[in-house]
Design goal:
Elements: H1 2-25, E1 29-35, E2 39-45, E3 52-57, E4 62-67, E5 72-78, E6 85-92, E7 96-104, E8 109-120, E9 123-127, E10 130-134, E11 142-147, E12 153-159, E13 164-168, E14 176-183, E15 186-193
Antiparallel strand pairs: 1-2, 2-5, 3-4, 3-6, 6-7, 7-8, 9-10, 10-13, 11-12, 11-14, 14-15
Length: 194
Amino acid sequence: MKKQFTKTLAAIALLASGFTATANESEKEISLTTENQKAVVLQMNNIESGTQITLKDEEGKLLFKDHTSSNQYGKVFNLNQLEEGQLYLEIESAEKLEVMSIEVTETKATMDAEAELVIEKPSVKIANGNMKVYFGENESVCGMKIYDSLGSIAFKDQVGSAAMKRYDVSKLAEGQYEIQFTAKGRNFYHTITL
């Protein structure tokens, strides 16, 4: 009986540790570290497949672009050949955009953790002539413009700190529309069909 109880207890402990590991494995992890003075290492785990990674200089010139094809991604950026200045590493998924700042000097590259920018992208749901827009909980102001198929503005709004806002789109003509959201100087787009 004692042996049976010990085996049962061991099985319960093993199951519990499996649940803990599963919970930790589902959290998104992004680490950015420097090695060898001017090499920056990006390591990401538990991310969405299709997440886009770009590296830009301070003028917005694209230096590197890639996307993930699985839930893990790793890359070493050798910055030895770059001039001094600020670089921006952007990690963009369907739900958010994260921008990390890297300062490159003559001898090293360093990350500025305080300058990290995270923008939660709005999401759109349409049903029965109503459009619900869900805004990120950390976004304070977001501009919205709806363009028709000819590129004319059919509707615009400036949203404050609402988590969700409803719009009556039943009066808009049938067709395809593009919605442009602007948050923290960045634009995000959704295409809808009415």
